[in-house]
Amino acid sequence: MVKVGIVGASGYTGGELLRILAQHSEVEIACITSRMHAGKPAYKVHPNLRRVLNLSFEDIPYERVAERCDLVFCATPHGASMEIVPTLLEHGVRVVDLSGDFRFEDVAVYERYYGKKHVAPDIRAAYGLPELHRKEIRRAELVANPGCYPTSIILGLVPLLKAGVIDAPHIVADAKSGISGAGNKPRETTHFPNAAESVLAYKMTAHQHLPEIEQELRRFSSEVRVSFVPHIVPVIRGLTSTLHCFLTQELSPEEVRKLYEEYYMNEPFVRVLDVGEVPRLSAVRGSNFTDIGGFAIDGERERVIVVSAIDNLVKGASGQAVQNMNIMLGFREEEGLRSVGIHP
Amino acid sequence: MVKVGIVGASGYTGGELLRILAQHSEVEIACITSRMHAGKPAYKVHPNLRRVLNLSFEDIPYERVAERCDLVFCATPHGASMEIVPTLLEHGVRVVDLSGDFRFEDVAVYERYYGKKHVAPDIRAAYGLPELHRKEIRRAELVANPGCYPTSIILGLVPLLKAGVIDAPHIVADAKSGISGAGNKPRETTHFPNAAESVLAYKMTAHQHLPEIEQELRRFSSEVRVSFVPHIVPVIRGLTSTLHCFLTQELSPEEVRKLYEEYYMNEPFVRVLDVGEVPRLSAVRGSNFTDIGGFAIDGERERVIVVSAIDNLVKGASGQAVQNMNIMLGFREEEGLRSVGIHP
Amino acid sequence: MVKVGIVGASGYTGGELLRILAQHSEVEIACITSRMHAGKPAYKVHPNLRRVLNLSFEDIPYERVAERCDLVFCATPHGASMEIVPTLLEHGVRVVDLSGDFRFEDVAVYERYYGKKHVAPDIRAAYGLPELHRKEIRRAELVANPGCYPTSIILGLVPLLKAGVIDAPHIVADAKSGISGAGNKPRETTHFPNAAESVLAYKMTAHQHLPEIEQELRRFSSEVRVSFVPHIVPVIRGLTSTLHCFLTQELSPEEVRKLYEEYYMNEPFVRVLDVGEVPRLSAVRGSNFTDIGGFAIDGERERVIVVSAIDNLVKGASGQAVQNMNIMLGFREEEGLRSVGIHP
Amino acid sequence: MVKVGIVGASGYTGGELLRILAQHSEVEIACITSRMHAGKPAYKVHPNLRRVLNLSFEDIPYERVAERCDLVFCATPHGASMEIVPTLLEHGVRVVDLSGDFRFEDVAVYERYYGKKHVAPDIRAAYGLPELHRKEIRRAELVANPGCYPTSIILGLVPLLKAGVIDAPHIVADAKSGISGAGNKPRETTHFPNAAESVLAYKMTAHQHLPEIEQELRRFSSEVRVSFVPHIVPVIRGLTSTLHCFLTQELSPEEVRKLYEEYYMNEPFVRVLDVGEVPRLSAVRGSNFTDIGGFAIDGERERVIVVSAIDNLVKGASGQAVQNMNIMLGFREEEGLRSVGIHP
Asked: Mean of the pLDDT values across residues A306-327?
């Protein structure tokens, strides 16, 4: 059994890693840390884990974590990971980092969008979107697990961009996220009376996931510019993006769908829906699938609409992190990730 | 007191007309009809009206409705209104029709999008968006009350189009509607286990409100083409549209806001938010206001984001219908419409 | 115009007082205070008030509030009111206090359940439930506005107790409250991912509203003991109580209903539903009504079920406070409180 | 591999059986039937099953189902099962029936509460609550899977009744169910605008689960009478019951908890919470656990409050059905049922 650890295991992504790893047959959870909850059993924070996992949070130096583990997940906030990851790597531990700290090729972009100086600018990571970077992930010491919005939007756009059939500088990505994406810390926008019966656009032109989206999409067309507007909707889990693109050539819905079908043919976690079907959040709730559908064409207006959906905590965070671990360690990619979506 | 009637008063827009008219000091509700609920007191269908309104539904010929009323609201479904309105007009009654039947200048557009032959193609109506057509509404015999999506999207775009600062053929309107917009008849998509914890795009390129939106916006630029995608979100009431536009000239958020401030300066029911503020559904819940905000500029990508919000049953339907009535009858435009939004 | 002030006007009950008073024709809002938001316009905190109320929060000494007002609402937290109210009363201002500080005849009960020493134990207030204490309220200098749970439960039980037909020591009141009842401060239990898709019993035997409920019900039977369990449910506004009572004599549903009909015959804000009807939260949402229904009898098990529903922020707080003010000042009791419930 | 079939596989409980059985290593799904969806792949109805299960609905005679299966789940409505089960049993197939048709020892009780004549009154079934009837289930040809409310309420009350510490004729069970419990057919009460922001008591004294609850509880005290009031709350999945009991002797919370701990010591699917903890629906969402907590004592009022929670579609239906199958077929009881709850 490979020994894995989780730094920052008391948040939502930490809890979700535990839920998934508890069903993984190739790894042993050797260590989970939380400063605030040190000493408490995991189930006191993640009540679904009662009787499922018999582990308690610890508050120990990262060197000690490294000694006890072969691979570590950093489920730590932006800014914290860059302080921790170098130590872990120095101790020869492989790392999957769920923060934004190592996702950028250009550190200046990170510093601009995250508003902080990077303390480990020379450390390189593979960008952990297996559908694009499986080969680099396999041999990486450090994998930077993608953001939830980028996962949904990049997977929804790549086949169109690769085929060169859309107007790359005029892409609109209107995304709607469940509120667990904001983490487990109560704040004004997540207060139920504010968040229920509400839809709220935020960071309309300046969300930190925008440069991540564009970095990856520009591998397919250097002209890509995305009008990305995130919204929070009264949903616990789930993230869906409506991708409005302008076509540069005539295409039928079936032809568009075929681009996706072919691009994702061998992907275990991308499901391409039939023409006319729209992804439903319940179909992916709790599961690692990305569902992509829509494929609506408005010939008169020369546009195509594609819709993608994920569970923001699974394919948008911890599920993808485990998928990356599986690739890094040579396990079957689906191992631990066979949970079926909770519908309805 | 002017005598008004409501044909089809048992649906959500009928109930909302009753709620509003019950607080109106210049009219008397002379007659409410419902085939299905004939004989029942209104409060048996609209439980909020218990003790508020002492009226029962009737099932009587439209001629009889006309005899008893000075003005009639048709809260009837698409296709039914065109059968009823001619009779009412012939009897000299003024009409506000909440269906889509009389919203189009070109009957062929109606027939294409609504999938039915128009039986009264020669009857002309004023398009009941007071912010654009107050003068025609004042003297109209028939007002075609706008759809909920068009109200939100048209009001959100007109100042930009009028100023000629956006790329008219590449407008994206990504709209999110509460589920009451689908009416009071249970169906699969409105079944709670399907609708809760969900966001669903539908009629992605073919919604019947699209030609209505373009008809009105083309008064400002003949080149307008709108990528309109409606979604249902787990909200009872409220509709918000995120309007993604590409700028044709450099503008600051303040300059954009000023276009709105000036355009709506004298409008009683449009509130222009401050730069950086995003409309909240609770601010308009139960009220006739349209809130417009956002005004985010991404200079690098030359785009502007504007967000508008209404209560789909009030400014998006029955409130606007009463506003139209007030204009037609020369009442104060706010009469009966002073309810403040229910926040939170 | 009578001049009124609100101390602590930035919370939910403060906002709701403003929404209601903005529609009141006999009073002028002379002063609203908030320490945290001093200087800000009210609409920045309560976005529904934009264009409706042109007032800003102030942070001024209570003496100054007293000078400018004839009547003051204290929408301050438990413990704060008892520090403020004596000053206001000394200055000859009449007060409606929305906290729990002055609701108890026996200060020891307050101190036990609220866990703090009372600093003004000699000040007497009328308990502001008009259906029970209209006469005392009329002449009171200080009215202690009831809690939301007590309002719903007391009104739902009094006719049965008065008639002496139930087993007073074995009453079960299982209550479900919307989350706005917890105030506007985000906390773990109100965090959307925790509160949505959830029902949570809390303070199962020790809620501070329990002694308030029993104090009032014991006016009708000294043996009353209530098994009161409050729950939070994923609802913004609304509070409903299911009252399970054991009958001491045989009664039909119609006979039970008649007890309510007679008891509340002249009450402007209590609606007694028909036998078999159950109150719906949407019928009272935003309105000052209490709806009471159910009236189900299980003869075999000798029990009766009554269900009552209110909007926790209106009849359960600010609406009732204005109703009390209307009584104190001799206005029509419905003044300002004619808003019809927002259904759906 | 044992061959299993599902009759009526297109409903919510059918879909949930498929989700669970897809993760079961000892059975093969040989046949799924649906009259309405015959010919369609299962994932067209249950979108979570896309790529997970490659099966289509059939519409074939029950004899044919029997020939292809060793064990059949009837996920058919009340009244339909009693027409089907006899045929299946005659063909030597073992059956788990999820309807109410075979839950009663006294057919007259069934006929009274379900309002129909029983067509197979002589067929006996084991009542499929493993915590009470594991031995009979093991050897049964037919298991009657319990209702969701009874599962939650019976498990929550048995330790108290067995210990003889509560007043058996005065038990109050106030239960709150998610809306998936009403099935997948849209109706007025499940229409989102009615069901959201709402709590609704229904069948207050006459729910068909009441006699089922009392039948099982009377095994422990013949005097049991339960005031059972079910409510629907705006939750997709999850059911929680607040059990109000009057104590006949003094007990501490720890003593009460110990009764539960001991009673359920060896049960794989009952988790007894710590004193003061209240079960959360997210802890059981998607899982087969029953969580029991509360254990609050109000000595003054001589009462004890216990709260239990399940996922109504899992332990309340399909998960328990698979647990029963595992017992009948001698599999490990947890097989296929290891999914961890989806929290948050």
From this structure: 98
Which of C169, A46, C174, A57 has its CA nearest to residue D294? C174
Judge contact between C321 and C267, C-beta under 8 A. no
Grouping H, G, I as helix, E, B as strand and the rest as coil, residue D72 is strand
Residues B328, B333, B337, B343: is their CA dihedral positive or negative?
positive
Fill in the amino acid letter for B3. Answer: K
Residue A148 is among the residues annotated as catalytic for this protein = yes
Closest CA to B311 of C344, A104, A30, A171: C344
Interface pTM, i.e. ipTM? 0.96
Specify which residues A32 forms β-bridges with.
Answer: A6
- Please tell me the distance from the alpha carbon of residue B328 to that of residue B338, in angstroms, as a whole number: 18
Cα separation, C209 vs C199, in Å, equals 19
- The angle formed by the CA atoms of residues A270, A273 and A278, to the nearest 5 degrees, is 115
Instruction: Report the top-level CATH class of A2-124.
Output: alpha beta
Across the interface, which of D23, D50, D342 has its CB nearest the CB of A286? D342
Cα A247 from Cα A295, distance rounded (Å): 12
A245-279: burial string, b at 16+ Cβ within 10 Å, e else:
bbbeeebebeebbbbbeebbeebbbbbbbebebbb
The torsion angle over the Cα atoms of residues B285, B286, B292 and B298, rounded to 10 degrees, is 20
Q: At which residue do the structure tokens 């009708």 appear?
A: C220
Average pLDDT over residues B178-189: 97
Taking phi first (over 0 means left), then psi (-120 to 50 degrees means alpha), and beta for anything else, what does residue D92 get?
left
Alpha helices, DSSP H only, in A80-237? 81-90, 107-114, 130-139, 148-163, 192-195, 210-217
- CATH T-level fold of A148-312: Dihydrodipicolinate Reductase; domain 2 (3.30.360)
Residues of chain C positioned with their CB less than 8 A from the CB of D278: 200-202, 204
Tokens at D52, concatenated: 């997970």
What would the pLDDT profile of D105-121 be if each residue is shown by its tens digit? 999 999 999 999 999 99
Nearest CA in chain C to B178: C344
Would the CA dihedral through C319, C320, C325, C331 be positive or negative?
positive
CB-based contact A308:A241 (threshold 8 Å): yes
* pLDDT greater than 90 at residue A315: yes
Specify the pTM.
0.97
- For residue D270, pLDDT over 90 is answered with yes
Q: Side by side, which strands form the sheet with C270-272?
A: C200-201, C226-232, C171-177, C239-246, C303-310, C290-298, C270-272
Q: A233 and chain B: CB distance < 8 Å anywhere?
A: yes
CB C240 within 8 A of CB D174: no
Q: CA C93, CA C84: separation in Å to the nearest integer?
A: 12
| CA–CA distances in Å: residue D255 to residues A51, D272, D292 | 22, 13, 15
Q: Does A183 touch chain C (CB under 8 A)?
A: no
What would the DSSP string read from start to end of C9-78? TTSHHHHHHHHHHTT-SSEEEEEEE-STTTTSBGGGTSGGGTTT---B-B---HHHHHHH-SEEEE-PPT
pLDDT band, very low/low/confident/very high, at A203 (cuts 50, 70, 90): very high
Ranges of each domain in chain B: 2-124, 148-312
Tell me the pairing of strands C239-246 and C303-310.
antiparallel
pLDDT at C172: 98
Secondary structure class of B39 (helix, strand, coil): coil
Q: Which residues of A touch D23 (CB under 8 A)?
A: 338-340
DSSP-derived secondary structure letter, C234: S
* Subunit contact A12:D344, Cβ cutoff 8 A: yes
Q: What is the DSSP letter of D170?
A: G
B122 touches chain A (CB under 8 A): no
Cα–Cα distance measured from residue C40 to residue C47, given in angstroms and rounded to the nearest whole number: 12
Percent of chain C whose predicted confidence (pLDDT) is above 90: 99
| Mean pLDDT, rounded, for B220-242 | 98
Task: Give CA–CA dist B35/A169, Å, rounded.
Answer: 54
